[in-house]
């Protein structure tokens, strides 16, 4: 069988020639050895420093005392913050930007003919992928890595929130002899901002004095197989990034490899078929230190994941944590459920139940919070303390974030960019606003993802009353490589779906602002407008708020 790493080597290694030597950028190849430390880096330059994943690492290295610089095409909130921290940021990518850099960091969006890559290669600088920097940071900490198609940012944010706000109390309690790590003041590398208990935005990168590092593990290019965390978490494994992996089988195998690299426990949901397939593939040694969580109220883990008859002894089966009595309050969106922990997991000789209340809605967030509580319990925290602290979590930025109300219309912003995420978002919106019309401004993310999931995007969006689909956000891709894939293909696929009304509920728009104007024009007091997508559709919230305020002024 072709492994994910070999698949990446075959299809995703890109190269350019400078002089007689080719420049090869392979995100799956480890750039550092076991003896390397942050002291090995020297002055470090980030190409595309304003990206969510890059800016976090740049900030962490800066806090660790590494000399950091970077470049990006244009200024944004991330570059403004980095500049305020004293980091030199160049706008425009030119060969002179890397002068003096010993290490040059790139992301998978950067091509080998980038002028800074070419200059770095000529100067003999160490060219490394962003995942190499994260792996280096993990090596010196008790690392918790969070991978999965959905929920990475929310789950890693929740773990960080619990440790930041209750780590000192847990350290003082010294509840378990197993707690060898200092939980207070953790480090974290999260691809987005966190909302603090007071609602203020907290940046997703911090180099703390404690022993724990919480990090998102991006599976999109296979580079997460480099990580050797203490705890490896998999929120779900629904097929995605098939432009890299080719098919669901290779995608799932990458998670099997990732899980096998954990030094300690593997924690994973088994509520999706992809995750169940991963559990069935785990070697016995890995399965024996795996903890699964599920909303399925019946059956053991072997029945849920289909392990019966596979020859593995029962002792090698994962332990199971159940999510029970999940319910969401209409109106305020409060999420309530109970976690049932198996004997031994919480330092108790008997099964243990912990009630949980969240401020963030949806069964998907019940799963995310359960994962966070399991991890912090394994780190040595009392699960009741972890659950109590999770109740103050306001959410990661751009995850069901209510941005304002104008002319009686509520504006919500969400990062959802996969069909399953969109369906979960709209289900949560229906429960929270049961009497409101739900109107969506959707920006597809990546031509390749749109191509793979055309019908599923259409089906997920049909949960809304009214949808405007704006042009696809390309990120690292180019329209010319996908000439037939536009936002219109989703609208066309939706035409055959049952919807009330059957006509006109979904349309394509030629640009963001035109789409925003269309949605505002359709809206009435009491409606909910949601901007959905991983690109720059979020900028339309403020635009629509101003349009609605102007409309309200005209009415008066």
Description:
The protein is an alpha/beta fold. The chain has 19 helices and 25 strands. The strands form 5 sheets. Strands 12-9-13-8-14-15-16-17-18-19 form a 10-stranded mixed β-sheet, sandwiched between helices. A 6-stranded mixed β-sheet has the order 20-21-25-22-23-24, with helices on both faces. Helix 17 links the parallel strand 23 and strand 24. Helix 8 (248-260) packs across helix 9 (273-281), helix 14 packs parallel to helix 16 and helix 18 (512-522) packs parallel to helix 19. The chain is globular. The N and C termini lie far apart (68 Å).
What labels would you give this structure?
globular, six-stranded mixed sheet, disordered N terminus, alpha/beta, ten-stranded mixed sheet, 556 residues
Number of continuous helical runs = 19
| Number of strand segments | 25
Q: Summarize the main sheet.
A: 10 strands, mixed
Low-confidence region ranges: 1-14
Average predicted local confidence, pLDDT: 86
> Strand order, biggest sheet?
12-9-13-8-14-15-16-17-18-19
Distance between the termini: 68 Å
What general outline do the C-alpha atoms trace? globular
SS class = alpha/beta
Helix coverage percent of residues?
A: 25-40%
Computed CA radius of gyration, to the nearest angstrom: 23 Å
In what range is the share of β-strand residues?
15-25%
